[in-house]
Design goal:
388 residues; 12 helices; disordered N terminus; alpha/beta
Length: 388
């Protein structure tokens, strides 16, 4: 495990002080931590990473080490008992984002800028005595409406991966053109540096592998209707392997018994059920799979960085055609019933020729520059913005 940076947190007056607010959770780290590492290499920039707990601090230290960076100056945003008790009563409240932000708000606001991958931090803009310079790097390049919400307008500067998101934010009047830039996809660039070589082989057979990646939002997720049918489909035939890896937040506060019931359906050399390990967020499964099956997760854009067959699950019966919230559903067949699932998956590889060109074109617009320099580009953009 990488070691944590030691205190003190003091900096010299000549340095630019950048705070990286990482309270969104470790599943967001690869979208933003590589930028912190790149910025920290500048001698006139002082970077401090703020995390929720010791587990995230350890994850951060390991990631920084894997990226080849020096240990980041790290501060755990601990809370006094009177503010932290709700998280002990209800597991789904354990993040306690707003209490942490308000309790640590003055310290965060002392930095020259606060960089974050989540949008709860915009609460700090509502208090004149805080009101820090906020810079946003969204965690993903997806299409759902939540990814283009009004809180974008609260940020002083926004850095997105590609022109797809920049154009939509500007068209929706959520950002001014001069306050929004593209960097390329930070996570993919970082993973290319960390995970050199061929994708990890997860099954000792030649069957094509399905990745089922359900979203966590119950209003949009296909999990309830499709998860079990996908597992049953693979169990009933010798045609496929399957990796069942929903968004890590889907089971974040689920009872252990419920998690155990799903995991018990795993089978050696055929079925992997992963409800939130690091392999769910570090592209291990994205790289290993042959067919993507999902709903509205932005992870599909990471998958089609190397165009491959996709199937989409319309469990909530959306009118998705010509709807910008479902642009990704142009990457493959869309089904609205488990009864149509097997046929769609069987057709996916044969029909991929119909979708490969769309995936390539739209993927480039979403992911931006693929030279591998996205973290450094974002770091340079932040430094230039703060200094001017």
């Amino acid at each position: 495990m990488g070691r944590l940076a030691e205190e003190p947190l003091g900096v010299t007056a000549a340095q630019t002080r950048i705070a990286f607010n990482l309270i969104g959770g470790s599943h967001q780290f690869l979208h933003i931590v590589p930028v912190a590492v790149a910025l920290s290499q500048s001698p006139d920039v002082e970077v401090t990473a703020y995390v929720s707990d010791t587990a995230d601090a350890a994850t951060l230290a390991d990631m920084v080490a894997a990226l080849g960076g020096d240990p980041l100056r790290t501060q755990i945003m601990s809370l006094p008992y009177w503010l932290s008790w709700p998280g002990r009563i209800k597991p789904r409240w354990k993040a306690l984002k707003i209490p942490r932000l308000l309790y640590w708000g003055r310290i965060l606001s002392n930095a020259d800028a606060v960089v974050t991958a989540e949008r709860t931090s915009t609460v700090l803009k509502h208090f004149p005595w805080l009101n820090p310079v906020l810079i946003h790097i969204p965690h993903g390049a997806g299409d759902r409406a939540k990814g283009f919400e009004k809180r974008f307008s609260k940020f002083d500067y926004v850095i997105v991966a590609g022109t797809k998101d920049r154009d939509r934010l500007i068209a929706n009047k959520l950002v001014n053109p001069e306050r929004c830039a593209t960097s390329g996809h930070i996570k993919l660039a970082a993973l290319a540096r960390m995970n050199r070589g061929k994708p990890k082989r997860l099954f000792d057979n030649d069957r094509p592998t399905i990745l089922y990646n359900a979203h966590f939002d119950p209003a949009l997720s296909s999990w309830t209707e499709f998860a079990q049918p996908i597992i049953d489909l693979v169990k009933s035939s010798d045609a496929y392997n399957v990796i069942v890896a929903p968004h890590v937040r889907l089971f974040d506060s689920a009872p252990q018994t419920r998690r155990a019931d799903w995991i018990a359906q795993s089978e050696d050399n055929r079925i992997i059920i992963d409800l939130g390990s690091d392999r769910s967020i570090d592209a291990t499964y994205v790289r290993a799979a042959d067919i993507y099956v999902g709903d509205v997760s932005s992870q599909v854009y990471e998958f089609i960085a190397n165009p491959r067959p996709c199937v989409f699950l319309n469990s909530h019966h959306a009118e998705w055609q010509n709807n910008p919230d479902y642009r990704m559903w142009q990457f493959g067949e869309v089904v609205d019933s488990p009864h149509r699932l097997e046929g769609a998956i069987d057709r996916a590889r044969i029909d991929h020729v119909r979708y490969a060109g769309v995936q390539d074109r739209m993927g480039k617009a979403a992911l931006g520059d693929n030279s591998g320099y996205a973290p450094q580009t974002a770091a340079d953009l932040i430094a230039a913005f703060v200094r001017r």
